[in-house]
Specification:
Blueprint (H helix, E strand, L loop, with lengths): L3 E7 L13 H13 L2 E10 L6 E6 L2 E9 H20 L10 H18 L8 E5 L6 H7 L6 E4 L7 H4 L5 H8 L4 E4 L2 H14 L3 E2 L4 E4 L2 E7 L6 H8 L2 H14 L3 E8 L6 H14 L7 E8 L6 H21 L7 E4 L5 H10 L2 E4 L9 H7 L8 E5 L12 E3 L4 H13 L2 H17 L2 H14 L3 H9 L1
Parallel strand pairs: 1-2, 1-5, 2-4, 5-6, 6-7, 7-10, 11-12, 11-14, 12-13, 14-15, 15-16
Antiparallel strand pairs: 3-4, 8-9, 9-10
Helix pairs in contact: 1-16, 2-3, 3-4, 8-12, 9-12, 10-11, 10-14
């Protein structure tokens, strides 16, 4: 059995196998690393005055973790710069927020080269290498230049943008060319896969087969959609845990018989939080019977505070929520509870179960596991209803949710009303089908499907020979 080498921007291994503060993805990758006796490599999150490439190796919950410190300039140009001010907004269809600076490009290239320099000595000839997300698109190219001939897979956790949007990126073809040094590239959804297919065939004159084999730049690449899942059984068990029951009780006591709508998101402009608040305001304006009988709780975890666009969205949400509460609140009721803090997974599970409606309405998202978390946390005898954006990758798998256009206040307002008034029998029917999908397509199935696809590919050398022929 070959080792699995996972490489990501940051390492988020659990401290123990029951660490409720760590997400399902980290748990699944950690389990795979234990099974394959692998290594998880990435940035430590710390900065140093001068990059030395010195590795920090440790064991965490049975997983070998290898991290490296970066320079402050790396953090600003690679992480805050190219990754989060250039690629993130572009890939989430916000080209108005994308910043293109040559220093960002140089920092991105430099850090990917430094990652390659640092991880290469750890590699053995039979290792499977699995690279994660937009921070590290050029990493396989850097590894190939250093003589690495292992199978290397890449998984993009965020959406791949439409061709016309992607071509607004300076030197966009260089980024795609770098992807062709991988053996397998996975996307979250068929929509992202289709957008990549369009770029390959229409922009660079490459070829794509129906089986997902892409040919361009003299190389062949296997691509596919691998929708990520949730650690469903663990999350469901967490919803019945003592911390979850405590939080559910706290929520129900504070609601005093009112219905709860819940949203849980990172504080990010891609999540559609301002649009969500305005749609909820529209609902209150159109349904006076809901006043003092419904509350929206929005948990928005702060992130990337150094990036100005995130400071702007936080200020706007403070203003909009304050205005709505000022207009509608009474002495013992506020329409919006807006919370900027992080909760453990088991605590969130209790909150989800207390909510009659889960509101998951990003403007653009690779998958959005909150939709699956909400479903997994529900009481089978009396589940809540899920309202889900058509632009979340999860919508391709979760058609029994109420699918909405997050850019339409009226559409979301109508869906909120329908969810709150949906008969229990219909809620149960929809939930059963949703939960069946969540269980079948869980994070372990996603992980195993991807790794098996990577293992099943021909040796990289054979791919190169096939490309020459």
């Amino acid at each position: 059995m070959p080792r699995l080498i996972v490489i990501s921007n940051r390492v988020n291994a659990p401290t123990d196998e029951n660490d409720a503060s760590v997400g399902g993805l980290a748990m699944a990758l950690s389990a795979a690393l234990r099974e394959y006796s692998g290594i998880w490599f990435g940035w430590s999150g710390r900065t140093t005055t001068e990059f030395t490439g010195q590795l920090s190796l440790q064991r965490s919950a049975g997983v070998t973790v290898a991290t490296v410190d970066l320079e402050e300039q790396d953090r600003q140009e690679y992480y805050n710069g190219y990754a989060n001010r250039t690629l993130w907004p572009l890939f989430h269809y916000r080209i108005d927020l994308s910043a293109y600076e040559r220093s960002f490009d140089k920092g991105y290239a430099r850090v990917n080269a430094r990652f390659a320099d640092t991880v290469t000595p750890l590699l053995e000839p039979d290792d499977l290498i699995w690279v994660h997300d937009y921070h590290l698109i050029p990493l396989a190219q850097e590894l190939r230049q250093r003589g690495v001939r292992n199978r290397i897979g890449f998984f993009l956790h965020i959406p791949w943008p439409a061709q016309r949007l992607f071509t607004t990126l300076p030197n966009h073809s260089d980024l795609v060319r770098a992807l062709f040094d991988y053996d397998l590239v996975g996307f979250q959804s068929e929509d992202s896969l289709s957008a990549f297919r369009e770029y390959v065939t229409d922009e660079i004159g490459g070829k794509m087969t129906d089986t997902g084999q892409a040919t361009a730049y003299g190389r062949q690449l296997q691509v596919g959609a691998f929708p990520i899942g949730l650690d469903a059984e663990a999350f469901t068990a967490g919803a019945d845990s003592e911390p979850a029951r405590t939080w559910r009780g706290r929520m129900e006591a504070s609601l005093a018989g009112r219905q709860l709508i819940i949203g849980v998101d990172r504080l990010d402009y891609s999540k559609g939080l301002e649009e969500r608040f305005l749609a909820y305001e529209e609902f209150l304006a159109n349904h006076s019977e809901a006043l003092e009988h419904v509350s929206l709780m929005q948990v928005a975890t702060p992130s990337r505070d150094e990036v100005s666009a995130y400071q702007d969205i936080r200020a706007r949400l403070d203003a909009v929520s304050g205005r709505i509460n000022g207009a509608y609140a009474t002495a013992d009721w506020v329409p919006i509870r807006y919370v900027n803090r992080t909760y453990r997974r088991d605590e969130l599970a209790g909150m989800y179960r207390a909510a009659a409606v889960g509101l998951v309405t990003p403007l653009r998202d690779g998958m959005n596991l909150v939709a699956k978390e909400y479903v997994a946390a529900q009481d089978p005898a009396n589940p809540g209803a899920l309202v889900l954006s058509q632009f979340a990758g999860a919508a391709e798998q979760m058609g029994d949710a109420l699918i909405v256009n997050p850019f339409s206040r009226e559409d979301m307002s109508d869906a909120i009303h329908r969810a709150l008034t949906m008969p229990r029998s219909e809620r149960i029917r929809r939930w059963e089908r949703l939960m069946d999908g969540v269980r079948k397509n869980d994070v372990t199935a996603w992980r195993d499907r991807y790794v098996q696809a990577l293992v099943s590919l021909p040796e990289p050398a054979q791919l190169e020979e096939a490309a020459v022929c």
